[in-house]
Amino acid sequence: MKNITTISKIGKKFLQKNIVNIIFVLATIILFSFSRNDNNRGPEIIFFDVGQGDAILIQQDNFQVLVDGGPDDGIIYELARKMPLYDKNIEIMVLTHPHEDHIRGLLNVLEEYTVEKIFINRVEYENRAYKYMLDNYENILYDVVGGDTFEYGDIKGEVLYPFNEERSQEKNLNNESIVLLVGIKNYRILLMGDAEIEVEGRLIEQYDLQNIYILKVGHHCSKTSSSEMFLKITKPQIAICSCGEKNKFGHPHYETIEKFINLDVQYLITYKEGSIVIKFNDL
């Protein structure tokens, strides 16, 4: 008992004499950990496995662009795994279009994170989540059109679609999707939302879309996306199919997969691969 008491007294005296040094060392370790996390976070893009839906994170250092949020709150857990714990700010959120499998998770993100800007293509569509976003986040909503851009470090993004022109709303809401061309270092990434063959044709008429490194395929790799002409012109090295296992829509469609195989395009399916992370410092 005397030995235990003696050790306790020695420990107490040591803490009293060295408490300032101990606090300083702990603070240094924490600050070093934070700064190392920032400095070593090179540009990356993550195609989350969120089931039948889309959710994509583009980030470098503490800068994030979140494109769509999937069909439920699963995106919250995915972001917690991929963003620094102390970073609760997202610079840009993009809602490609207000179908439930793209917008639902974004509302959960808006509750958990500070979002500076939301890029939207404002459309007429009856959806409770969409109405809630329009009613409650008007101050950070930005209606974007072709030519609008964002940039940080090695990341450069440009809105390709919708075009900056007067037109009627498409009957097929998928074809109102915001389409983004993202450049990271020397690599080009084309994010199609749910845009289908009709929009693909307009894009290749309007833009030089050759030599795409990653194609996030439109409409979850359904048979209504990825025409042979579009694939031959864009020449993607990697095609991403974001969809849930055994979904009722039959995504990815076998005809679309056959096109990838015939044109020697590597394709990755989120429900098979899990979340797909591409770190551009490693390429």
Any overview of this molecule?
- Helices cover 35% and strands 24% of the residues.
- It is an alpha/beta fold.
- The strands form two sheets. It has a seven-stranded mixed beta sheet, with helices on one face. A seven-stranded mixed beta sheet has the order 7-8-9-10-11-12-13.
- The protein starts with a helix and ends with a strand.
- The protein has eight helices and 14 strands.
Keywords:
alpha/beta; globular; 8 helices; seven-stranded mixed β-sheet; Metallo-beta-lactamase, Chain A; 35% helix; 2 domains
Task: Please describe the topology of this protein.
Elements (H helix, E strand, L loop, with lengths): L1 H38 L4 E4 L8 E5 L2 E5 L6 H9 L6 E6 L5 H13 L1 E7 L7 H9 L4 E3 L5 E4 L2 E7 L17 E6 L2 E5 L5 H10 L7 E3 L11 H7 L3 E4 L12 H9 L3 E4 H4 L2 E4 L4
Parallel strand pairs: 3-4, 4-5, 5-6, 10-11, 11-12, 12-13
Antiparallel strand pairs: 1-2, 1-14, 2-3, 7-8, 8-9, 9-10
